[in-house]
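User: My advisor asked me to double-check a structure prediction for Tetratricopeptide repeat protein 19, mitochondrial before group meeting. I don't want to rely on an old file, so could you generate it fresh from this sequence?
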Amino acid sequence: MSLWVLLRRLPRRSLGVAPLLAAAGRDGRRHLQAKARPRSYGSGNAQKPDGGATPLAFSLALSAFSLFSQEAEEEMEKDPEEGHAEKTEENIIFLLKKAKLCIMKGELEEAEHLLHEAAQLSHQSDNKQAIIYTYDTMANLAFLRGQLDHAEKLFKAVMSYLLAGKMEQDDNAIIEISLKLASIYAAQKRQELALAGYEFCILTLEEKFAKQKDVAADDLPAQEERVNTRLLLGMSLDSYARYLLAHKQAAAAQRMYERALQISVEVQGETHPQTVVLMNDLATALDAQGRYDAAYAHVKRAWDLAQQTEHPEAHVILNNLAGILMHKEDFSQARQVYKEALKQAEKAGDGTVVRYIRKELAELARRWKQAKTTEYSAKKGNEGVKN
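Assistant: Sure, here is a fresh prediction for Tetratricopeptide repeat protein 19, mitochondrial from the sequence you gave:
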């Protein structure tokens, strides 16, 4: 049963982070998950507050997609009602903008209060567009705060309003919500729903993109829609890959990452922040399979690009480079890279990464000592045989 069918069962009026550690399998080794904070589809402004911890399944960045962006606000501003309705709409827009600013500043409780005010005014004025926009922002906020049940209800409410407005099920807005719902189900360990959600998003986008291949070059809106569809496919593949990696299916995750990386390179370019993160994540999937040389090649390229572009998560990528060197048993080089990553993490004020790298340095020392002991024992054994 598709996610679409499952969501259709919902009543129409139903409504009631620190860097991520990705499980990489093999000896329990982990990698820090860099965050690109991309803005590849739409122009969403929601940012992850520095103090909030985000579950692994939320690895699709909420800032990457925003169903209703500033364009929606501008649409509301362009065509206001007269008199009292116009004033109400202006108040809703003001509350929404203020709430989004609070989210960016990490003032989440104040943002929630403002959004509830906006929702109340939207219902009182029966402004469907404002209701949808407000609910979507409220859902993203609940998502960020780890309020999964509440976020699920809000996202489903947004979807219900959109479908009631005759929006097609393969519209990018519907698929975006479906992708977020899949991440929620993954975090809740509702695996069947999570897998159905990822499958729905990827298959629907693949079919849609194939149908859009004959778009005329001078049809700019259609061309933009085609680009957005492909980028959303890339984001879906990325999110699914992270899910697979967390469930120790590294080979399958690798295939998803490779496809997502190809899309990002072709559409956004090799130096785009999201492209760099995908290279790093692909390296993680390869490393989890013991394919250290291939993993090193990808993470080294990601690190080179991160340096060139002053990537905000460069210290995280450098940490992963050190981890792969450790797995290759290049302990001396790994220690040097870890120390540089530690220095950069301290400079960035990233306490979580600082603590993580210090633990990794301790693990490196343990492995290095163990390797030396093994080497010494083997050498003594060989000398005994000769004698």
